[in-house]
Amino acid sequence: MPQLNPDPWLLILSSTWLTYITILQPKISSYLTTNSPNKNHETTNTNSWTWPWT
């Protein structure tokens, strides 16, 4: 059963994650978010729903 033999894929998996952690992750996390959080703390006045059977 070749699925149980870790030789072909363990090195590839380890090198891929090492590359991602050391090179790609800092580049990806350095981008600014496109949707900045809403810093307006105004609350909206909402009316409660009036149910016709009550």
UniProtKB/TrEMBL annotation:
UniProt feature, compositional bias: Low complexity: 43-54
InterPro entries documented for this protein: ATP8_metazoa (IPR001421), ATPase_protein_8 (IPR050635)
Alphabetized UniProt keyword annotations: ATP synthesis, CF(0), Hydrogen ion transport, Ion transport, Membrane, Mitochondrion, Transmembrane, Transmembrane helix, Transport
Key word Membrane present: yes
GO biological process: proton motive force-driven ATP synthesis
Subcellular locations according to the entry: Mitochondrion membrane
One GO CC term, this protein: mitochondrial membrane
Annotated region (Disordered), positions in chain: 35-54
Predominant location category: mitochondrion
Membrane topology designation: Single-pass membrane protein
Chain ranges passing through the membrane: none
Coiled-coil intervals: none
KW Mitochondrion (keyword) present: yes
An annotated Gene Ontology molecular function: proton transmembrane transporter activity
Family: Belongs to the ATPase protein 8 family.
Name of the molecule in the record: ATP synthase complex subunit 8
Organism annotation: Geochelone elegans
Highest classification ranks of the organism: Eukaryota, Metazoa, Chordata, Craniata, Vertebrata
Encoding gene, per UniProt annotation: ATP8
